[in-house]
Amino acid sequence: MQTNWDDLRIFLAVARDNSLSGAGKRLRLDPATVGRRIQKLEAALQTVLFTKSPQGYALSETGQALLVRAEQAETAMRAAVAVLQEQSDRLSGQIRIGAPDGAANYLLPQVCAAILKENPDLEIQIVALPRVFNLSRREADMAIAVSAPTAGRLIVQKITDYKLHLAVSRDYIRDNGAIRSVADLARHNVVGYIADMIFDRELDYLEEIGLTKVPLASNSVSVQLNLIRQGGGVGVVHDFALSAAPEVARILTDEVSLTRVFYLIRHEDDRRNARLRRFADRLCNGLRAEVARLEALT
């Protein structure tokens, strides 16, 4: 006669609790039901598994032999369930993320690499463009933005705050002298965005500081940082990017400290898409942790 896992599960509960009532509590079954199931199992196996005593239900010699096999089956069952749960929790298929190049260059590589390590069947595409993505046209499955959209059928989720400060290379300071105040910036080269290519007002840092003349400009955050690294001038830099440029240091941190927000944007039609929702959760958690880690290094 073959026994099933449910038979063994009840047998193990009685063997471990030495009582029908204890096993019933463990299994959330009525003790009488547990007793009937044990009697049925003994009848099917044509043997006695327990002997009743004042101390409760004690295993017979045959019961002791079955206990060893049942525990082996339990271990195998738990291992199988763990594998199935792990496989069912893994993500697969292609997911495309649109992102401004600051996040794309200094945050997404390490975060997405970690997600891919956990989900080897996944294909992640990072589209780094300094502009707003059109999710309605399916340019991407989701996008990171620096301001929350107010129109369109979109799911908007705040990811995290992040900090920016003025920064300059040590070579530039050596060649051009210390910058001790915001007023001093007027006599120094400034690196920043191309004014008519700023795609979001949240990125107009220099206007907020009161700087309008930008001798070295780019629509790319990574290009701006490289200009600063090469001694081109002083500019606003993401704190999370500074670890990639050890020759660059923050300045005037008490006078100029900016805070911005990253948002994750998805199309409303994807609200019920469990796959994208799970990926979005992993992405947001990873980005929060990575921003916190990198900012702590500054």
UniProtKB/TrEMBL annotation:
A Pfam family hit: LysR_substrate
Any GO MF annotation of the entry: DNA-binding transcription factor activity
Residues annotated as domain HTH lysR-type: 3-60
Signal peptide: none
Coiled-coil intervals: none
Family classification: Belongs to the LysR transcriptional regulatory family.
Protein name listed in UniProt: Transcriptional regulator, LysR family, putative
Species the sequence originates in: Roseobacter denitrificans (strain ATCC 33942 / OCh 114) (Erythrobacter sp. (strain OCh 114))
